Amino acid sequence: MSLLNRVLGALARAVTSAPARPITQKRPERPVPPERPERSERPVPSAPRTAGTSRTALAGPTAPGRDVEVYDVSVRGLPAFAYSPDPDGQADPGEVVWTWVPYEDDPSRGKDRPVLVLSRLPEGLVVTQMTSKDHDRDAAQEARWGRYWHDVGTGAWDSRGRRSEVRLDRLLLVAPDAVRREGATMGRTTFEGVVSALRTHWS
Q1: Is residue 108 part of a domain?
Q2: How far apart (Å, rounded) are the C-alpha atoms in residues 109 and 86?
Q3: pLDDT in tens, 116-142
Q4: Smallest Cα–Cα separation from 98: which of 201, 17, 178?
Q5: How many domains does the chain have?
Q6: What angle is formed at CA 152 by the lines to CA 151 and CA 157, rounded to 5 degrees?
Q7: What is the CATH number of the domain that holds 77?
Q8: Buried b vs exposed e over 74-113: b needs ≥16 C-beta within 10 Å?
Q9: How does pLDDT run across 24-50, given as a tens digit for each residue?
């Protein structure tokens, strides 16, 4: 055997006897997804606000309207007036009491107001509503709406000592048990002034 053949044989045996090294394959890189644009935050609309009523009122079947009605002076005439206050717990002519008064534009609704008792009839009390608003300032405007007032000054019926007025053009007929609470007694002279103003207005 020649020297060349012996060298080639030795190389072949060395390659065959050497441990095989594992071949690692490079894993393909995963594509990076494109960056998603940020979502803009949309404001959540708030629920609509429910407007409330600025005045306390009773309505529908809970309103005591059946106990209060308009006293029609044009049909029945003015009642007989008799100043007779009596601290017996019942409403009498000359006393200021509180009762439910219906609104003119919607008689099914109203609110508690002070009223002056003018007369007592078999079917109820004839009263006129009172207010602490000064209608001397807007008398002409009130007259255009058919509302007329008479000043009665101050009294124990208003704890804040405000001047009060009574309405002349609208009288009410109230059931005695519809009176909420007793307020105070109006002086005789002031009461007679109201009676005189009513007779002048309705003459």
Answers
A1: yes
A2: 31
A3: 999 999 999 999 999 998 887 788 888
A4: 178
A5: 1
A6: 130
A7: 2.30.30.110
A8: eeeebbebebebeeeeebbbbbbbbbbbbeeeeeebbeee
A9: 555 555 555 555 444 434 433 333 333
Q: What pTM was computed for the model?
A: 0.67
Beta strands in 36-109 (DSSP E): 68-71, 95-102
Domain that holds residue 152: 63-202
Q: How far is CA 15 from CA 5, 20, 132, 162, 172, in A?
A: 16, 10, 121, 123, 127
User: How far is it, in rounded angstroms, from Cα 97 to Cα 94?
Assistant: 10
Say how many C-beta atoms besides its own lie within 10 A of residue 130's C-beta.
Answer: 24
Taking Cα atoms as reference points, which of 188, 197, 61, 76 lies closest to residue 126?
A: 76
Tell me the C-alpha to C-alpha distance, in Å, between residue 94 and each of 67, 85, 87, 120: 21, 5, 11, 11
Query: Coil, strand, or helix at residue 117?
Result: strand
